[in-house]
């Protein structure tokens, strides 16, 4: 279990560290250790790293600032059986870093007197990283990393995703998988970067390559996927995350399951739906959203998560025509027990077309987790509108259009959306033909209840899920014989 002070910073740092360390390297992060005497470290999260050279363990202390490592240049010799991994700071050109630094291995003052071990209080809480790597070299994960070629993704995920240490593979295995992927074709481009179909041992995977300006989204998704148990049929399956150097530049990769149908946005462009498929898409999305929104307690638990950028482009359609939610780069986490709201550190905002009125008017209560969940519900209502418009009723169906297509430009500004949603209080027009079908009529009622100006009046994800389950049951009932 991560201790509180390190829980946000460590997972990403260690993944970055794994991009440079060898299979035998190990890292100890100790929380609650004394702060370094160096002024730049005061009040920040400390780390302790140890390296073995010629039988002597050299300990270094430093601290985390964002995702940069600051070394204190105070080596200490102690008898610890640990080796230290190398870790880079933020990539060159990032807003918070200027290049590569080394964890515990930066030049030290040769004239410095090592403090005695008695001046170091033992850490109250330590976390061995990677989370499922044994502290003894050569055990479990190291073996898995070397045998990755003999496994399928299903084998790896079923072995390691029930450990309670998060939904991701051990970091060393993630790195090994990432380095064995061949990029085949680019299947999507956007402001975020590119998505490629890659192949790993004959299996297709999706590789999202983040643009340098969206670096914080990569950090956030990596952090969430590696610290939260998120395995769910309706959440995009995470495989690995890696920082790699290609063509003399740093690339940030997020590797996930591949779904050949693409995004819901793409799927709706080319596919007219029947009522059953429409309901299946809507139900599967809300199941994923409920899983995100709910806090689960216990060793296999998870904090509550609000997505904050739900839209048809961030939802993928699987081969069974069920959906899964993707892109957690803006997600917010909340734990009732500690009443801790983790909003991350991402300057990116959501998609303006899908923003709720309280976001556009800048009236949202940013200190209240419930507020973020309600913005997800507003966006879900818009996605539901997109789906139902593409559903055939009595032989009639509309062409695909994005929400508010008839009210704002193709790339609306914040002010465009604010006028339409907040000042004019418009909502998308629901086609009259939907009301001739009982299921689509019920879906139209739900979407309208997602669009109340007052966030507290909107439905909850759980209420929507229960309503759609009843609709599904009504479709499945055998019709009485004539």
UniProtKB/TrEMBL annotation:
Its localization reads: Membrane
Instruction: Describe its membrane topology.
Output: Single-pass type I membrane protein
Enzyme Commission number(s) from the entry:
2.7.11.30
Q: Key word Kinase present in the record?
A: yes
Q: Which SMART domains match?
A: GS (SM00467), S_TKc (SM00220)
* Keyword terms of this UniProt record: ATP-binding, Glycoprotein, Kinase, Magnesium, Manganese, Membrane, Metal-binding, Nucleotide-binding, Receptor, Serine/threonine-protein kinase, Signal, Transferase, Transmembrane, Transmembrane helix
Could you tell me the Gene Ontology terms of the biological process aspect for this record?
A: angiogenesis; cell differentiation; heart development; tissue development; transforming growth factor beta receptor signaling pathway
User: Belongs to which family?
Assistant: Belongs to the protein kinase superfamily. TKL Ser/Thr protein kinase family. TGFB receptor subfamily.
Output the lineage of the source organism.
Answer: Eukaryota, Metazoa, Chordata, Craniata, Vertebrata
Region Disordered: start-end pairs: 95-141
* Organism whose genome encodes this protein: Melopsittacus undulatus
Question: Listed GO cellular component terms?
Answer: BMP receptor complex
Q: Which reaction does it catalyse?
A: L-seryl-[receptor-protein] + ATP = O-phospho-L-seryl-[receptor-protein] + ADP + H(+); L-threonyl-[receptor-protein] + ATP = O-phospho-L-threonyl-[receptor-protein] + ADP + H(+)
One example of the protein's molecular function in GO is: ATP binding
Q: Under which main EC class is this enzyme filed?
A: transferase
Q: Where is the signal peptide?
A: 1-23
**Low complexity bias located where?**
114-126
Q: What is this protein called?
A: receptor protein serine/threonine kinase
Give yes or no: UniProt keyword Membrane.
yes
